[in-house]
Specification:
By secondary structure, the protein is an all-beta fold. The protein is built from one helix and 16 strands.
Length: 191
């Protein structure tokens, strides 16, 4: 495995620390007066989901995490267990708990393909696409005279996720949603 110096630990890299894989969320190298430079990093433990802040110094050397991605098919959720299968082999089924899937259930419908992150052949987490297209299940009618000036209303998507959408979005429309922010992005098609 490749060694990584403290100043090369940057956002979106995966590193191994204390036997666990971490995804670096942000990093900021700073140098104060006569002190040596340090790198303040924010990392997410891919095994536990815990986010930590750590200061790395010049003497710190981490290892690159041997992370692989594999496409899997999301089947269904039952009592807090999320069931998946291999894309080409529906008999190869496995389940993951909420800690591993995060907020996937808000944005992914049954029988959709998602990315599984593996470390030492063990699934650490599921990655949802940055943008997903979902059908609007419920949306109140637009209030007459209130359709301009960026007014929004609450809509319920086919997954049950609730978000704010512009007044012109109606039931049955397909919209794009940003999964990082959980916000409306654009209308894909009209009902």
């Amino acid at each position: 495995m490749a060694k990584i110096n403290y100043n090369d630990v940057t956002a979106k890299r995966t590193v191994t620390m204390d036997g666990d894989p971490y995804l670096v969320l942000s990093s900021s190298i700073s140098k104060k007066d006569r002190q040596k430079a340090s790198n303040n990093v924010r990392m997410k433990n891919l095994r536990t989901g815990q986010v930590i802040d750590k200061t790395l110094h010049q003497s710190d050397v981490l290892e690159e995490a041997d992370i692989t991605k594999r496409e899997v098919k999301y089947l269904y959720e039952n009592r807090g267990e999320y069931w998946f299968c291999e894309v080409n082999n529906p008999k190869e089924r496995f389940s993951l708990d909420t800690d591993h899937v995060g907020d996937m259930e808000n944005f992914v419908t049954e029988n959709s393909l998602v990315q599984a992150i593996l470390f030492d052949d063990e699934i650490m987490s599921i990655i949802t696409p940055i943008k997903v297209e979902l059908k609007v299940k419920e949306a109140p009618e637009a209030v007459k005279g209130n359709t301009s000036s960026g007014a929004t209303k609450e809509a319920i998507l086919e997954t049950g996720f609730v978000l704010q959408v512009p007044q012109f979005i109606n039931e049955g429309d397909v919209i794009a949603v940003n999964t990082d922010s959980g916000q409306y992005s654009e209308r894909i098609s009209k009902a």
